[in-house]
Amino acid sequence: MVRAKGFFWLATRLPWAGSWQLAGSVGRHEAAGFWWAAQPESRWPQDPEWRRTVLANWEEPFGDRRQAIVVIGIGMDEPRLRRRFDACLLTEAEMRGGPKAWAKLPDPFPRWAAG
């Protein structure tokens, strides 16, 4: 993997969108802000094109929360890489637990603060 970047959703932090960037051996993750699903619709921009874009990525019951990561590399073992990413996702049983159960899951990331 030469480069990777994108947004991710942690089940332990429902309102937050995380950002991940990797260039060579240097990686960084941080809060990217809040998912629109976590904001009252009254705070959304009014621009119709913007709303169409957000709603194109909307999936109930989670709204715009998702994993959206792009990976660039040479000679990558794509199936292995996909398995490793998939291992980070909640299992079906964990998904059924819902947000109250997710809040109790281990969360190794440092605290994020708005600001």
In a nutshell, what does this entry contain?
By secondary structure, the chain is of the alpha+beta class. It is 25% helix and 24% strand. It has helices at residues 48-56, 78-86, 92-102, and strands at 3-8, 16-23, 26-34, 68-72.
Describe the overall structure:
It is a single chain. The protein is an alpha+beta fold and 115 residues long. It has one domain (3-102). It is 25% helix and 24% strand. It has helices spanning 48-56, 78-86, 92-102, and strands at residues 3-8, 16-23, 26-34, 68-72.
Oligomeric state of the chains present here = single chain
**What form results from the Cα inertia axes?**
globular
Number of strands: 4
* pLDDT averaged residue by residue: 94
Report how far the terminal alpha carbons are from each other: 31 Å
Helicity, as a percent range: 25-40%
Strand ordering within the main sheet: 3-2-1-4
What does the largest sheet look like? 4 strands, antiparallel
Residue stretches low in confidence (pLDDT < 50, at least 5 long) are: none
Strand percent estimate: 15-25%
Structural class designation: alpha+beta
Order of helices and strands: EEEHEHH
How many helices? The count is 3
Report the C-alpha radius of gyration, rounded: 16 Å
Tell me the count of domains.
1
